Batch of 4 targets.
Target 1
Amino acid sequence: MEAGWRVRIRHLTQVEYDGEAESSYNEVRMTPVDDHGQTTLAQRLTIRPATPVWTYRDYWGTQVSVFDLPKAHRSLSIEAVSRVETYGPRPLSKPLSWGALRQIDGPIAEMLRPTERTTMAPDVAQAQVHGRDPHEAAEAITWAVHERVAYVPGSTGVLTSAREAWELGKGVCQDLAHVAVGLLRAAGLPARYVSGYLHPSRDAPIGEPVVGQSHAWVEYWAGEWVALDPTNRSKVGESHVVVARGRDYSDVPPLKGIYQGPPAGRQVVKVEVTRLA
């Protein structure tokens, strides 16, 4: 495993209601995971108005912070600050055979099942599989998504499906990840959607805060989980920070909640990333 970075992430979400919200209940997924690919050194979540916060691990292994505001409030502020040590890509091990992959069962097999957002035609995936081992096929599929679906901010909506983005030929990182997940699954590779942060510069200077990005990429399983970034046509490394994993975006939104109050409001999200070492 290549030496990595130490990164500070500040993710601020501010919600302003058009009037008073009488109460709200919220789930937050903004805490980076702590696993073989990165180490979370510190993390803090601040809610305003102040309220108790409970945490748990969801079915997919993501840390979820939950809180409710039972009193009337006109605004909501959520600030997540974390320090994470990241690492470069690991060397690939010999993949399982296609025959062995067809025998997979248990939790990993759940990542073979298409969802409404990730369903893709099998023939598109099979064209990239012929004569390739699972690692080679996964890269061919993911890079094909990069070539076919252009990254165009604002070109799609949060509910756009993989098939719609593929036919449109453009989308955002969420769409490219959905398309790649769908094609990997159609090829017979378990695949999961990954949400997190990306430092925009691979040659980032030390100590300089920059405007970061919430980002999405994919992981496929061929005996071990391997991460690829279809938006940037790259392997996932030290500039990526994993927060959540799931079947598709619906399992990993940074903020999900319900409230009782006015029908309209405004939400502003700011992400700041600083390479510390």
Target 2
Amino acid sequence: MSYTTLVDAATLAAHLDDPAWVVVDVRHQLADPGYGERAYAAGHIPGAIFLHCDRDLSGKPTGSNGRHPLPGRAEFAACLAAAGIGPATQVVAYDDAQGMIAGRLWWLLRWLGHDRTALLDGGLQAWQAADGALTAVVPTCAAGSLQPRPGCQPVAAADLLERLETPQLHLVDARSPDRFRGENETIDPVAGHIPGAVNRFFRDNLQPDGRFKPAAVLRAEWLALLAGALPEEVVHQCGSGVSACHNLLAMEIAGLSGSRLYAGSWSEWCADRGRPVAVGAT
């Protein structure tokens, strides 16, 4: 059986010694880029390897391509292969940030055409709540053989701009409501949002314990937000293409497949002062 959205702590515990499974720790803090490596060194799920959001899950920022541009497909596939991931590997990603970073890895693997990827539901907190052990031992990985295959495709800024005023685009912004409205912006140089976007804070996909809401609840909430738009008309974005992947995953859990990611997101959009900007709740 393969898992393509979520895995609970008990299921992961039963597969810790399964050579067909690779667990990836992607803990990260935007304000402290070294946090994840320190946290991993202090203790991680046994057998987990570490990938860094800035170095491994992102390409090099140029000032115009967003804060977390996509890595090169071939280079990223090679990075994953070096970590022991092959075409038949079940990947489980986790963080301690409510799935915000793990969702990025989930989407990136689907971008490479590798769908056997799931989040640890509830993250490291759920693992520890289930009395899961931690270790400081860094595993040795036998190289895998992952090759990029056709997968989900991101939306480019030029395509988004061209479709901005059309009814075939339903843009969803995953940032916090205050940042969406253009308030309390401390990360990007311009405050506001892309005109026409609606706001769905990624944390609204979660229950109070940090696990995802049931599929039926997510489906009802997302159908209400989409207001008749088809999933394939939906484009997700956030500040830099990270937390938006959480909303993509939520729609997948809800059975609403086909939405896409604007990977450059607000940080790329606002880097070009010629692109339109909106502020306020709409």
Target 3
Amino acid sequence: MYETQYHRPTSLAEAASLLSGGADAKYLGGGMTLIPTMKQRLAAPSDLVDLRHVAELKTGIEVSGRSVKIGGGTTHAEIAAHKGMEAIAPGFHYLASVIGDPAVRHMGTIGGSVANFDPAADYPAALLALSATVHTDKGSYSADEFFLGMFETALGDGEIVTGVSFEAPDASGYEKFRNPASRYAMCAVFAARRGGEARIGVTGAGQGGAYRWTEAEAALSSSFDAAALDGLSVPEDNMLSDLHGSASYRANLVKVVTKRAVKKAIGQG
């Protein structure tokens, strides 16, 4: 066994102070990644700084017209239950409802998921497709500049994700092809249309985590219909390949799942 000190700060300033005071301290959001990692002895932080009781992160969900702001400490279950979110951003609302299982949805937070950037996490694909902004205690980042690579973000040492914001699109849809055991995405796609611009966020399939499929965006910006994707193919070079699915399998999934997401966005799915 190893010794870990547990801390329960109530402010961002206190959390930052506790993190800097630990030899190898880690922030704890919902604990959906860190706790299993510790159980497997793949991580042994000297201190756990629990962010679940920090007031600045518990600002909930604010919908003002088409503008959406979500506090970093908001759970997946809270997003999935929010009627205002369902009304103006049904794709994002649905996404939150299919993360993990009920236990995960009631413990996991959007801030923790975004900060961790698991290659199969759901929110990053949506934030990329929605041109969202990621807010931290030290500044703000566009989603395009925030997500850098698998488990790698623009966050600096000790920086905390305090929330995300975006303008609701005219149409949105999310489709997720799940691993039946873990419920993580083998491939999932968030499709969004705002005006004449389409954006497609893909997660679960790429080696670098979530990314935008720009070729599909160009085709769908001309015609936001699943048939617009018929002539496209996805290169296998940057696809994940494991016991659950080869690179070629995932490359094909990206196109299939994108079509389904677009159909959902236009009310055909």
Target 4
Amino acid sequence: MHDVSQQGHSTNLIGLSTACIASLDFNETPKPLRIAGTRESASGLFEQLFKQSTREACGQIFQDYMCVVFGFESEQRLRDDASGRRRYRNSYLRLIQDWGLDSNNAQGAVFKGWVESRFGLFPNYHKQRIASFSCKDWVMYIEEKMNSRYHNNCIYMQLDLLYEYCQWVIERFQFPSATHKTLYRGVNSLEDHCLVQGEDNHHKIVRLNSLVSFTDHRSIASEFGAYILEVEVPMVKLVFFNELLPHHALHGEAEYLVIGGDYKVKVQR
């Protein structure tokens, strides 16, 4: 059964057990995380990044690199010979954009599937709470995350590079001495979140979904629900944040994409 006692696979690509990554202890005393082989496979990119003196210049180099390596520009020139329709070439930017529109769509399943593959964490919510491997919601998640439409351009490799670039920027520019970031999430109900322990009405331990959206603006979080969850998120669990890239679709919401697990949560209204 996929339940509150089982959080993920026994294997992953980051060199620590999934149980450790998902644990409250890890979130309080985090360790560096690396997706095996990612920086080594793009050593030329990171060599160029080290030569830059500003985050903005690094962001432009990263996006130019991704555009060239994964052929985003050529997508506009490619057409299917038989039907004349434009070929679909998936990109990390499109996945970020579609996540912002609806984290429970097929693209959201692909994003959660990447977290499952690399960090070992099962999602506990996709459209609805996922209670077991045999429930229809788990089967729907599997079908959507494996949809070939979204795996035709090494999308997991793109997301590997996005995560490693995010961590590189944090180390180099953003918060070189900080280990955590205070973030907020607005929700209408606490029932969609897996409660591990309720200390009192305002302090709980919650098992967050494998990938979760937050903001660093409390006022923005209040627009998305009656309750505000305040969480101290380890920097090593950030996949994306608003200032990371010069060009993306989530600039207006100060959004952070966070890897899940067990977190201490302060509940506010």
